[in-house]
């Protein structure tokens, strides 16, 4: 059922999914749903990916928990069908949001707790200053990504196309400010 091109993508996406916070099989199931125009049954997914029906059920549950898959019912058909939910931007936002919850938020909590402790000596004071910088960076990144996530895909595309142009604008602004001060 899969062409070599689609199979290559599905297998690679499975490996990438593992890096994004879900296992290889879940990544492959999701990639198959994205690459397939029509909704699939669990049996079709299992057959196409050569995995057990149980693994498909567990993978679909996880994709539903991530809000990446939708269950479809066809009139007159008792089978459940599955398709990807939303578009690629929705998927990216959900992955970012889950990673933030799983990785960034606990780290920020730990850093805040450490910064609330009284430093016992100069070594701990230095460590807290380093931790404060890390905390501030993560806070800024979190606020920035949340702002990006609130943009429409069209505005986000425009922003990404600006790319290094934004850096050039900021460099020009800095030069103008230096001339004003000097």
Automatic annotation (TrEMBL):
Designated name of the protein: HTH-type transcriptional regulator
UniProt-listed Gene3D superfamilies: Winged helix-like DNA-binding domain superfamily/Winged helix DNA-binding domain
Residue stretches making up the HTH marR-type domain: 21-79
Family: Belongs to the GbsR family.
PANTHER family listed in its UniProt record: HTH-TYPE TRANSCRIPTIONAL REGULATOR MJ1563-RELATED (PTHR38465:SF1)
Keywords, in A-Z order: DNA-binding, Transcription, Transcription regulation
InterPro entries recorded: ArsR-like_HTH, HTH-GbsR_regulator, HTH_MarR-typ, MJ1563, WH-like_DNA-bd_sf, WH_DNA-bd_sf
